[in-house]
Design goal:
It is an enzyme of class 1 (oxidoreductase). Keywords: Metal-binding, Oxidoreductase, Zinc. It is built from ten helices and 18 strands. With 352 residues, the chain is of the alpha/beta class. It has two domains: 186 residues, Medium-chain alcohol dehydrogenases, catalytic domain (Quinone Oxidoreductase, Chain A, domain 1, Alpha-Beta Complex), CATH 3.90.180.10; 134 residues, NAD(P)-binding Rossmann-like Domain (Rossmann fold), CATH 3.40.50. Strands 3, 5, 6, 9, 10, 17 and 18 form a seven-stranded mixed beta sheet that branches. Helix 4 crosses helix 5 and helix 4 crosses helix 9. The longest helix has 14 residues. The radius of gyration is 20 Å and the shape is globular. Bound molecules: zinc ion (2 copies). The site of one zinc ion has 8 residues, from helix 2.
Length: 352
Amino acid sequence: MRALRWHGKGELRLDDVREPAPPAPGQAVLEVSFCGICGTDLHEVADGPNLIRAGAHPLTGVTPPITLGHEMSGTVTALGSPSPGVEVGTRVAVDPCLRCGVCRWCLHGEYHICAKGGSVGLAADGGFASHVSVPVEGLVPIPDGVTDRMAALAEPLAVGLHAVRRAGVQPGDNVLLLGAGPIGVAALLSAKLAGAAAIYVSEPVAARARTASGLGATEVYDPARSDVRREVFLRTGRIGPDVVVEATGRPELVELAITTARRGGRVVLCGISGASATVPITQIVPFERTILGSLGYNHDIPRVLDLMATGRLDPAPLLTGVRPLSAGQDAFAELAADRGSHLKILLEPGRS
Ligand SMILES: [Zn+2]
Ligand SMILES: [Zn+2]
């Protein structure tokens, strides 16, 4: 089969590889329907390895080259162990978290922060191929009425939902989102569902700002032109937002997030970068601000699929393109060159 593999920084190749072997106990093989290109994948190609290990991954032992892709939907073709509600032929989305199952965090249900954890598509071969092997505990049956195409968007939406759940957004809260990329938009949709009274968004890219407005943001600010902190302060009765979600990983925005949250407010950081942020301690302690990290999802993908099935969450605005796997390298280049016009591109291995 053909697979889009990461060989090293700047080296993304469409290779001929063997199909996955019949699954070992605990594993399942899927025929991939759709798999989304994530900002993480773009970073691995632009300046990796970041999350990919240059040597053997401590949990999987896998070394590059590695098939990318962790945002997938497909149909189960073989099962190495039983999985509730799943048979051969079941349509599934995948929670791609790889977990050891025996560390302190796995034993407490926090598999997403497993001490040895990794992800399908970064620590093991992923979904940019016709078939993929995944752990059975990651299989999430797709409800009737949700298409495979929409189900492939469940993973990025779950990142936003998890951030909003971590922040404890309550009905009537005022929320500020920094960044309206795929995760920021996912957080916007989830904050609406959580009952936020107002959702303010800071986003410099015009096309993304328009998307955020169209999805119900109360106000969208261009940080190059507006003093976001002051604008939101004034619009919240000189109180400040209850919750700030930082979805970019830019250090200056981490500082902005912390200094903008109201006294006693919550800041949730879900953007990752290797950079360090400088924040005055006097902006945290005297104001009793709570700062939280949010990584991926923890049983959030089934929630997202249920929200899609009941019509509460429409994933369509996230999707801006679908390409055959053979056009994968071009799609990566297009996303890297133009952040404005795309949110999410799905690759479709079954289409030539
Ligand atoms: Zn992702
Ligand atoms: Zn673990």
